[in-house]
Write a structure and sequence with these properties.
Blueprint (H helix, E strand, L loop, with lengths): L15 E6 L8 E5 L4 E4 L8 H4 L15 E3 L5 H4 L2 H6 L5 E5 H28 L13 H8 L2 E4 L4 E3 L5 E6 L7 E7 L2 E5 L22 E5 L12 H14 L3 E5 L5 H14 L9 E3 L2 H12 L8 H9 L2 E2 L3 H10 L3 E5 L9 H8 L6 E4 L8 H6 L4 E4 L2 E4 L3 E4 L9 H8 L8 E5 L3 H15 L3 E2 L6 E3 L4 H8 L1
Parallel strand pairs: 3-4, 4-5, 5-6, 10-11, 11-20, 12-15, 12-16, 13-14, 13-15, 16-19, 20-21
Antiparallel strand pairs: 1-2, 1-22, 2-3, 7-8, 8-9, 9-10, 17-18
Helix pairs in contact: 4-5, 4-8, 6-7, 7-9, 10-11
Length: 478
C-alpha cells in the first residue's frame, strides 16, 4: 500500500482513500476520496492533545486545498469540523455539505473556536508565556465567517450528487444533534464513514440508524477497548454534588459545549426535581457557546428524545454566565455552587480560569464526564497528575477528581460491534480510525474475531486503492 505524497502532482487513476487524520489518534478526522473526476474530503477536524499532534494543525494541508472539490461533514465537533476555516482561507472553494443541525452548530462552534484562538494569542503575547515572539491564532473570526458561507444543507436519506461521478447519502448517527454517518459512492464502490456513533441508550439523543452495508467501512473507535459503566451516571452525579456541598465546595464540571453540557443539565434538572440535590445551590453554565446552542436544541425537538417542556426545564435549572466580568466574579464567589464550563478536556476556554481558582482547594470537586484524549489536561488529571500548567504557571490540584464514565455520547465497543453486525453483507475491509492506538487495535481484533471481517488500523497519511484487491493487498502487507 502506498502513502499520499505531500503535494501530489496529479490525481491517481482509479479511486483511492487517504487517511489524512484520525488514523493514529482520536482527533483530527480527515479522509480524502479521489477518483479521475473529483476529490472529496470527509471531515476536516482539528488535532488535539499531544503537542506533536497539535503541530499538524500548523503544517500545510497534505493536498492543496484548491484541489479539493467538496467536503462532507459528519458533525459539528471541532475534531471533525475545526480546521475548515483554515482550509477555506488557504484555497478551498467548493461546497461543505452537512445537515441543518450541523450547520446551525457550526455557526456557533467555528466562530467560538476562532474567537478563543485569537484571545489566547493576545493573552500569550500580553503575558509572555508563549515561546513565539508574536503568537498568532491558527485562524481568525473572519476566516470562520468566510468558511460558513461555503455550507450547503442536506437532509438525512437524500441522495446527493457531488462532483464528477461521486454521490453521497447521509444517515442519522445519534451522538449529538445533526450528527450523520456518510455513505459515498465512488469508482463503483460504496464507502461508509461512521462519523461518531451515538449510543442506543443515550438519555438525550436518538439511536443511530443501523449500518446499511458498504464495500469499505471507516469506523470510529473512541471507546473501542472498553464498555461503558453500568453505574447510573445520574446517581453518581447526585452523590458528587451532595458530598461537595456538605463541605461547602465548588463542583466544577468541564463539559463539551455541544452535547455534554445538555446531558449534564438534563441529569441535574431531574435530580433537583426529585429533591436528590439541594435546590438552593446555584448552578451556572459558563460557556457562551453552550448558551447559544440552547436555541438549536429547542428548535429541533424531533432530533432528540426529550419533550419541549423538559428541554425548557433542563435549561432553566442553570444561570447562564454571559460576560467576562460575570465569569470572573464566579472565581470570587466560592461554594457551594456548581459550574459547568467548556472545554471538556480542559484545553481552553473559561474553565481554565475556574480550574486555576478552585483546583488548589481540597473541598472542591472536578468532575470528568467524557473522553479525555491523550496529552490533554483532562487526561493528565485522569492519570493522577496533580499539577497542571495553566497560562504559563504550574497550578497544584488538591481538589477531589471524580470520574463519571457512563455519560459519554459515544457508542462503546459492544455498541460499535452491534451496529456493524446489522450489515446485510460484510465489507471488503473495515478501517478502524478515530481512536487512541490501543482502542483502535482492540476494536480491530474484535471485528476480525467476532464478525469474521478483514480489518486494519491505517497509518497517518496512508493511501489505499479501492477495488477487489484491497483485502489481498492488506493481507500481504502485514
Amino acid at each position: 500500500m502506498s502513502r499520499t505524497s505531500p503535494r501530489p502532482a496529479q490525481r491517481e487513476r482509479g479511486a483511492t482513500l487517504a487517511f489524512l487524520g484520525g488514523a493514529d489518534t482520536v482527533t483530527g478526522s480527515r479522509y480524502l476520496l479521489t477518483d479521475s473526476t473529483a476529490r472529496v474530503l470527509v471531515d476536516c477536524g482539528l488535532f488535539q492533545g499531544f503537542k506533536v499532534l497539535r503541530r499538524r494543525n500548523r503544517a500545510s494541508f497534505p493536498v492543496p486545498p484548491d484541489s479539493i472539490d467538496a467536503v462532507l461533514l459528519t458533525h459539528a465537533h471541532l475534531d471533525h469540523s475545526g480546521y475548515l476555516p483554515a482550509l477555506v482561507r488557504d484555497g478551498f472553494r467548493g461546497h461543505i455539505f452537512a445537515s441543518e443541525g450541523t450547520i446551525a452548530l457550526c455557526r456557533i462552534m467555528l466562530l467560538d473556536s476562532a474567537h478563543l484562538m485569537e484571545e489566547e494569542a493576545r493573552h500569550a503575547s500580553r503575558h509572555g508565556w508563549s515561546r513565539h515572539e508574536q503568537p498568532r491564532a491558527l485562524y481568525t473570526v473572519d476566516d470562520a465567517l468566510t468558511a460558513l458561507d461555503r455550507f450547503v444543507s442536506v437532509s438525512a436519506g437524500d441522495d446527493i450528487s457531488l462532483v464528477g461521478s461521486m454521490r453521497a447519502r447521509f444517515l442519522a448517527a445519534g451522538h449529538i444533534l445533526g450528527a450523520m454517518s456518510v455513505y459515498v459512492d465512488v469508482g463503483g464502490h460504496r464507502v461508509c464513514f461512521t462519523g461518531d456513533l451515538g449510543r442506543v441508550d443515550d438519555p438525550l439523543m436518538r439511536p443511530p440508524r443501523v449500518f446499511e452495508g458498504a464495500d469499505l467501512l471507516v469506523t470510529e473507535s473512541t471507546y473501542g477497548d472498553r464498555r461503558h459503566s453500568e453505574v447510573d451516571p445520574q446517581g453518581q452525579l447526585g452523590d458528587i454534588v451532595r458530598r461537595t456541598v456538605r463541605r461547602g465546595g465548588v463542583v466544577l464540571i468541564p463539559a463539551f459545549a455541544v452535547g455534554r453540557t445538555e446531558t449534564v443539565l438534563l441529569h441535574l434538572s431531574r435530580l433537583r426535581e426529585r429533591g436528590d440535590i439541594p435546590d438552593d445551590v446555584p448552578i451556572y453554565v459558563n460557556s457562551p457557546m453552550a448558551i447559544s446552542v440552547a436555541d438549536v436544541y429547542r428548535d429541533r425537538p424531533d432530533e432528540h428524545r426529550i419533550s419541549r417542556d423538559e428541554v425548557e426545564r433542563m435549561y432553566e435549572v442553570a444561570t447562564p454566565v454571559r460576560s467576562v466580568d460575570e465569569s470572573k466574579l464566579l472565581n470570587l464567589r466560592g461554594g457551594p455552587m456548581i459550574i459547568i464550563s467548556a472545554s471538556g478536556m480542559l484545553e481552553g476556554g473559561r474553565v481554565l480560569h475556574h480550574l486555576r481558582s478552585y483546583g488548589p482547594e481540597t473541598r472542591n470537586t472536578i468532575v470528568l464526564t467524557g473522553f479525555q484524549a491523550a496529552g490533554t489536561r483532562g487526561a493528565r488529571l485522569l492519570a493522577g497528575e496533580r499539577s497542571l500548567r495553566i497560562f504559563g504557571s504550574d497550578v497544584p490540584i488538591r481538589a477531589e477528581v471524580a470520574v463519571i464514565d457512563a455519560m459519554s455520547a459515544h457508542a462503546d465497543a459492544d455498541g460499535l460491534i452491534a451496529w456493524m453486525s446489522a450489515a446485510p453483507h460484510p465489507p471488503q475491509i473495515a478501517y478502524v480510525t478515530h481512536g487512541e492506538p490501543a482502542a483502535a487495535d482492540t476494536l480491530r481484533l474484535r471485528i476480525e474475531r467476532e464478525l469474521g471481517w478483514s480489518a486494519q488500523v491505517p497509518d497517518h497519511e496512508q493511501q489505499v486503492r479501492l477495488g477487489a484487491d484491497i483485502a489481498t493487498s492488506y493481507a500481504t502487507s502485514t
